[in-house]
Design goal:
This protein is an all-alpha fold. The protein contains six helices and no strands. Helix 1 packs across helix 4.
């Protein structure tokens, strides 16, 4: 099912079912899951390590490269969902709260097209 037809709750449940079936909750401490997110993120970063910014924008043009990136990104998200499950975090609420903080921290009129208020743009 595509993103537009899948809820976070469904994905969290799928990850939880996978973990539960294998009796892996015993290994899924928040510490271990946070470390796993970092490790998988590093594996994702490897696909972009020695290419230019422009080349990175064209990874989707190569089905093989895109498949590798997709797999690593899925690993990162699966571990993030597992961490949310273990800690009882409602990701939709967490993301909404974080975006509200970001709206205050980075007002669009001040940051549009730039990465910082002192960036000449």
């Amino acid at each position: 099912m595509p993103d537009s037809q899948t809820t976070l709750a469904q994905l969290k449940q799928q990850v939880d079912d996978f973990v539960d079936c294998r009796d892996w909750h015993q290994f899924h401490s928040p510490k271990n899951l946070a470390m796993s997110i970092a490790i998988e993120t590093a594996e994702l970063m490897e696909h972009f390590q020695w290419i230019s910014t422009d080349e990175s924008r064209h990874v989707a043009d190569s089905p093989e490269r895109l498949a590798d990136v997709e797999e690593e990104l899925a690993d990162v998200l699966c571990y993030a969902l597992a961490l949310a499950n273990e800690l009882g975090i409602d990701l939709s609420d967490a993301i909404r709260r974080k975006m509200a903080k970001n709206e205050q921290k980075y007002p669009a009129e001040q940051y549009r097209g730039r990465f910082g208020p002192d960036d000449p743009g």
